[in-house]
Amino acid sequence: MYDAGIQQVTDSRVLAAMSHPLRRRMLDVLKVHGPSTVSAVAGLTAQSVANASHHFRVLHRSGLVEAAPELARDGRERWWRLVSTGWRWSSRDFATDPAGAAVAEAAESLNLDHHVRIVRTWLSGSVESRGDWAGSAFSMSNWLHLTPEELAQLSGELGAVLTRWSNRPSPGEDDERKPVFVFAYGQPGEP
């Protein structure tokens, strides 16, 4: 394991809760912006506060977020934070339960849809709207010949690189850093 803060998901109910497209976006908001109020997350995801509150309760029951009452300025404010820095799951963990296997299959598809949506949103803008970031964004792929063990090793190495970059100190006020989405997939395939 390359990051002790990553939670291994083996409960199909938790996997279903985190795979819902809106809840996934809410988890991303907390990952990018840190602990937040229901109303702030609702605004960032274009949802009503009532809807966001409902989905936070689902995430809380699933052990994915926890209340952060110490951040509230008054009794009406409801703050939430992530319980883990991230999550991983393996379809293999759900293979013996047909319902769990169906959830894992759907979660994989929804996860890919989520990743592609983020990239497509970026690509839908004009080169001018991307500013200085247009020359920095990247896409890369390669065909490798690997064993299952080597693919697992590659996953660990890539994960360690991403963890190292995500654990860097927070930027200063003059820093031009902004959230950058990076993802990689590695699975057997044919051209």
What is the element layout, followed by pairings?
Elements: E1 6-8, H1 12-19, H2 21-33, E2 36-37, H3 38-44, H4 49-61, E3 65-67, E4 79-82, E5 86-88, H5 98-123, H6 127-130, H7 148-166
Parallel strand pairs: 1-5
Antiparallel strand pairs: 2-4, 3-4
Helix pairs in contact: 1-5, 3-4
Verbal overview:
This protein is mainly alpha-helical and 191 residues long. It has a domain of 126 residues: Winged helix-like DNA-binding domain superfamily/Winged helix DNA-binding domain (Arc Repressor Mutant, subunit A). 47% of the residues lie in helices and 8% in strands. It has a three-stranded antiparallel β-sheet with strand order 2-4-3. The chain has a two-stranded parallel ribbon with strand order 1-5. Pfam families: HTH_20 (PF12840). InterPro entries: ArsR-like_HTH, HTH_ArsR_DNA-bd_dom, HTH_MetalResp_TranReg, WH-like_DNA-bd_sf, WH_DNA-bd_sf.
Report a brief summary of the structure:
Residues 13-108 form the HTH arsR-type domain. The protein is built from 7 helices and 5 strands.
The CATH class designation of the domain at 6-131 is Mainly Alpha
Q: Sheet bearing the most strands, described?
A: 3 strands, antiparallel
| Number of contiguous helices | 7
Counting helices, strands and paired strands, the structural category is: mainly alpha
Query: pLDDT average, as an integer?
Result: 91
Going by CATH, what is the homologous superfamily of the domain at 6-131?
Winged helix-like DNA-binding domain superfamily/Winged helix DNA-binding domain
Could you state the order of secondary-structure elements as H and E? EHHEHHEEEHHH
Catalogue the unreliable spans: none
What share of residues are in beta strands? 5-15%
CATH architecture of the domain at 6-131: Orthogonal Bundle
N-to-C span = 31 Å
General shape: globular
Q: What is the helix fraction of residues, given as a range?
A: 40-55%
Strand order of the largest sheet: 2-4-3
CATH topology name of the domain at 6-131 = Arc Repressor Mutant, subunit A
Strands, count: 5
Keywords: DNA-binding, Transcription, Transcription regulation
InterPro entries: ArsR-like_HTH, HTH_ArsR_DNA-bd_dom, HTH_MetalResp_TranReg, WH-like_DNA-bd_sf, WH_DNA-bd_sf
Domain HTH arsR-type: 13-108
Protein name: ArsR/SmtB family transcription factor
